[in-house]
Design goal:
The protein is of the alpha/beta class and 276 residues long. The chain contains five helices and 14 strands. It is 14% helix and 27% strand. The strands form three sheets. Strands 2, 4, 5, 6, 7, 8, 10, 13 and 14 form a nine-stranded mixed beta sheet that branches.
């Protein structure tokens, strides 16, 4: 016999709901648990649109146990666009169960690893915003694309856009991981944020670095064009130099752009200075 909501919740007190509660406990443990409250609500809402329950499925009741009923993930999407905000858990855990060809992420996620298991994914767009992440995390963003080391075997389009330099986020400086994804047909990456801080003192006010940007095979043969708004900046065949930096300057500015066919990568970053 199918028990109503009040009977299930109050079954122990009433003394006759133990069998019914045990059955629903199994459904609860069958739910996909999602750490992000925002993502949990989004998944339950989007996956429920047009859902027709089969015998034994009570969507409202099953959702009340927390997480997302596993049977909802049988729905297929052409595009899925959740927002992940960092004022609570910004984990993407649970999202890997969505069956979609295109995924568009907005917000402050910091662990992208779960989405590598969306096997049908062909288009991935990531739009990061700055701010404080989960657990007091002061920086959001990704310094590399290591989350792509597993999965994404069908990925054709990758777009990545990250905040602005004022957010002091970790800029994306290494895109070499894209080399292991020959299925890619289009890449558009725009990153902004901070690089690792450097030290200077009154008697030594210069800094130099050789080609700090790491490209993937898709950019083979393309030239990285570096620039800076700093008057002391020079670029000699990829050797970037800042000489006679004015004392107490807070940071150095660096921009770059590189294009090879349908593959584009640009950045605008700040290099903080620690004066000794």
């Amino acid at each position: 016999m199918k028990l109503g909501r009040k009977m299930v919740i109050g079954g122990v007190l009433l003394g006759f709901g133990l069998v019914g509660f045990s059955g629903k406990a199994e459904a609860y443990y069958g739910n996909v648990q999602v750490p992000s409250y925002t993502l949990t609500n989004y998944l339950n809402e989007e996956l429920s649109i047009g859902f027709v329950p089969e015998e034994g499925q009570d969507l409202e009741l099953d959702q009340s146990y927390g997480g997302v009923p596993r049977y909802l993930f049988e729905k297929e999407f052409l595009s899925f666009e959740p927002r992940i905000m960092g004022y609570e858990s910004s984990s993407l855990e649970g999202l890997q169960n969505v069956d979609t060809k295109k995924l568009v992420l907005h917000g402050q996620p910091y662990d992208f690893n779960p989405i590598a298991n969306i096997w049908r994914l062909e288009e991935l767009e990531i739009y990061l915003v700055g701010g404080h992440g989960y657990g007091g995390r002061a920086k959001t963003g990704s310094q590399d694309l290591s989350f792509m080391r597993q999965g994404f075997v069908n990925l054709k389009t990758f777009k990545y856009e990250q905040g602005d330099s004022a957010d002091a986020t970790n800029a994306l400086l290494d895109v070499s991981e894209l080399s292991d994804h020959p299925s890619l047909e289009q890449v558009d990456i725009k990153t902004a944020g901070g690089m690792q801080s450097i030290s200077m003192r009154s008697g030594y006010r210069k800094y130099e670095v050789f080609n700090p940007i790491v490209l993937s095979s898709q950019f083979e043969g393309a030239e990285i064009v570096y620039s800076s708004t700093d008057a002391t900046f020079t670029n000699t065949d990829g050797l970037l130099k800042w000489n006679a930096v004015p004392q107490d300057t807070e940071y150095l500015n660096l921009s770059w752009t590189v294009t090879q066919g349908a593959f584009h990568y640009e950045g605008d970053v700040q290099i903080p200075i620690d004066w000794k």
